[in-house]
């Protein structure tokens, strides 16, 4: 429990975090990596370079200050981040290092405004928040199918569209793979020739959860160091280091609830795994997909027969180059009071789809999102 004086001081820093939060976290990461460059083997370098990770951490600080009296309100965010941390290999011994450099960054960015009372209060608050993360992540580590990274062999490589390629992978040690929850992801760790540090990327498992082989489906990003390396250099027979499945964006197990999947581009991958899990179900299932054109449409030939095999299944795809994007008129055909909605795709796409669903009367609690990369909420309010 935090002292009341600590809570009062933390709340007083909310306006400062709203203005200077990202400056503090950007300085924090520079400081952290200067002193502990080995941590670059864990963190996603692209998220650092593009500023996404500092923004995500700034949001965590801002939300922690806002909910300092009721930290239990942070439980959904803690769960999301904890899964990412477990997948990347973040350990409890990293938290004191982070705390040291975060407090130093607050002091160095804010200068005299960061009084001794403020630093002391944030040190106390950080200790409590870190303990919550450590406890949550320890549970995930204990429940994990394997510790750290396991060597997998690429047993097949299949182009799915002009930009997306699937990699089928199996453990080199012959381990029987656990059934992942539909919607989960794994972290792929790669060593690229000429690069000093490892690169980690998280990819959704796009295949049927009960298969003996995992499937990841990777979009070639224009400046994506890892995605391009996977597309151009990884072949059948090569090995990849893979973490155990993680993530809490998973399919609800409620037996009768209608399900509506809404995806944009490569965002179809976790939803495809969910659709496989519903094969032959009596539930109402709608699969709505949007992409630029037919050449970029992945998995259409896989989705259609799956939907056709569902008595109450419906499928809609729109190519924005020809027909425009998914809109409220499309969504209206799939609205019901009990339905659960699963959204995945580019942030702007999900913002638009969620806004449309809310306007059509869908309860916010029925809308589930998957954000690739750091856990920054939609329409972030923090000064960027």
Largest sheet: 6 strands, antiparallel
Q: Given the structure, what is the number of helices?
A: 13
Q: What proportion of the residues form beta strands (DSSP E)?
A: 15-25%
N-to-C SSE string, H for helix and E for strand: HHHHHHHEEEEEHEEHEHEHHEHE
* Uncertain spans: 378-384
Number of beta-strand segments: 11
Radius of gyration using CA atoms only: 22 Å
Shape: globular
The percent range for helix content is 40-55%
In short:
The protein is α/β, with parallel strands linked by helices. Helices cover 42% and strands 18% of the residues.
Describe what this molecule looks like in 3D:
It is a single chain. The chain is an alpha/beta fold and 384 residues long. The protein contains 13 helices and 11 strands. It has helices at residues 4-12, 14-35, 45-49, 52-66, 75-88, 94-110, 116-143, 225-233, 268-277, 300-308, 320-323, 328-332, 347-359, and strands at 149-159, 164-171, 185-190, 199-204, 214-219, 239-243, 259-264, 285-291, 313-319, 340-344, 367-370. The strands form 2 sheets. It has a 6-stranded antiparallel beta sheet. Strand 1 and strand 2 (164-171) form a beta hairpin. Helix 2 packs across helix 4 and helix 5 packs across helix 7.
List keywords for this structure.
about 375 residues, 13 helices, disordered C terminus, about 20% strand, six-stranded antiparallel β-sheet, alpha/beta, five-stranded parallel β-sheet
Present the secondary structure layout.
Blueprint: H1 4-12, H2 14-35, H3 45-49, H4 52-66, H5 75-88, H6 94-110, H7 116-143, E1 149-159, E2 164-171, E3 185-190, E4 199-204, E5 214-219, H8 225-233, E6 239-243, E7 259-264, H9 268-277, E8 285-291, H10 300-308, E9 313-319, H11 320-323, H12 328-332, E10 340-344, H13 347-359, E11 367-370
Parallel strand pairs: 7-8, 7-10, 8-9, 10-11
Antiparallel strand pairs: 1-2, 1-6, 2-5, 3-4, 3-6
Helix pairs in contact: 1-7, 2-4, 2-6, 5-7, 6-7
């Amino acid at each position: 429990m935090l002292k009341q004086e600590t809570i009062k001081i933390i709340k007083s820093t909310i306006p400062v975090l709203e203005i200077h939060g990202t400056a503090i976290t950007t300085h924090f990461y520079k400081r952290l990596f200067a002193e502990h460059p080995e941590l670059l083997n864990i963190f996603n370098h692209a998220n650092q370079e593009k500023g996404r990770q500092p923004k995500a951490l700034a949001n965590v600080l801002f939300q922690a200050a806002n909910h300092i009296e009721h930290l239990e309100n942070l439980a959904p965010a803690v769960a999301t981040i904890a899964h990412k941390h477990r997948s990347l290999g973040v350990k409890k011994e990293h938290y004191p290092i982070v705390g040291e450099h975060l407090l130093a960054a607050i002091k160095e960015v804010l200068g005299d405004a960061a009084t001794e009372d403020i630093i002391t209060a944030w040190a106390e608050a950080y200790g409590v928040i870190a303990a919550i993360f450590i406890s949550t992540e320890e549970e995930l580590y204990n429940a994990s199918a394997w510790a750290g990274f396991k060597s997998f062999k690429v047993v097949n490589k299949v182009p799915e569209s002009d930009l997306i390629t699937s990699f089928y992978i199996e453990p080199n040690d012959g381990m029987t793979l656990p059934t992942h929850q539909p919607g989960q992801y794994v972290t792929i760790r790669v060593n690229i020739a000429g690069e000093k540090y490892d690169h980690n990327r998280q990819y959704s498992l796009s295949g049927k959860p009960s298969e003996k082989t995992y499937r990841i489906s990777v979009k070639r990003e224009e400046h994506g160091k890892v995605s391009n390396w996977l597309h151009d250099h990884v072949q059948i027979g090569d090995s990849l280091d893979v973490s155990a499945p993680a993530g809490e964006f998973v399919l609800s197990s409620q037996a009768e609830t209608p399900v509506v999947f809404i995806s944009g581009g490569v965002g179809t991958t976790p939803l495809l795994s969910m659709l496989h899990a519903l094969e032959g179900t009596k539930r109402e299932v709608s699969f709505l997909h949007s992409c630029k054109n037919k050449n970029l449409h992945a998995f259409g030939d896989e989705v259609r027969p799956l939907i056709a095999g569902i008595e109450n299944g419906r499928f809609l795809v729109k190519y924005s180059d020809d027909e425009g994007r998914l809109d409220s008129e499309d969504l209206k055909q799939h609205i019901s009071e009990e339905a659960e909605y699963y959204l995945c795709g580019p942030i702007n796409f999900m913002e638009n789809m969620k806004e449309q669903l809310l306007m059509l009367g869908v309860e916010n609690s029925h809308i589930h999102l998957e954000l690739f990369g750091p856990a920054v909420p939609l329409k972030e309010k923090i000064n960027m």
